[in-house]
Amino acid sequence: QVQLVESGGGLVQAGGSLRLSCVASGRTYGSDCMGWFRQAPGQEREFVAARTWSVGSTYYAESVKGRFTIFTDTYKKMVYLQMNSLKPEDTAVYYCGVSRRGRYHRSSDYGYWGQGTQVTVSS
Predict the structure, then answer these.
(1) pLDDT at residue 55, rounded to an integer
(2) Cα gap 20→22, rounded to integer Å
(3) Please, are residues 83 and 26 in contact by the beta-carbon 8 Å criterion?
């Protein structure tokens, strides 16, 4: 079992920055893929970014490449999402998840989720 808790969301103006945090507790493995997804009202949960704890490969959705950065602190079991140059279309609830299926971009491959944190970007 893995428990995930996100924090760091809030209201920010377009062009601003936020850093989301996700702390994992319970049994984790170096091969776990840690992902960030987001879900806007009336829309499906969509992939944002992912990386594994140990190997360090990173993956990004095209819509956030060059603006968002995912990084981890394996000692603290923390996963971060640094979001820069935010746009109103980034407004959503952001979720942290764990995938143990060797895949990272589909929400159905994630077995554990946090409760989410709201990010609102005003124009």
Answers:
(1) 65
(2) 7
(3) no
Instruction: Return the closest-CA partner of residue 8 out of 86, 97, 114, 118.
Output: 118
Distance separating alpha carbons of residues 97 and 79, to the nearest angstrom: 10
CA 111/CA 47 separation, integer angstroms: 15
Whether the per-residue pLDDT at 15 is higher than 70: the answer is yes
Q: Label residue 99 by pLDDT band (50, 70, 90).
A: very high
Cα 75 to Cα 59: distance, rounded to the nearest angstrom: 21
Name residues whose C-beta falls within 8 Å of residue 19's C-beta, 6 or more positions apart in sequence: 8, 80, 81, 82, 83
CA 72, chain centre distance (Å): 11
Give the E-state strand segments of 27-109 in sequence order: 33-39, 46-52, 58-60, 68-73, 78-83, 92-99
| Residue 45 Cα distances to 42, 92, 116, angstroms | 10, 9, 11
Q: Are 105 and 59 in contact (CB under 8 A)?
A: yes
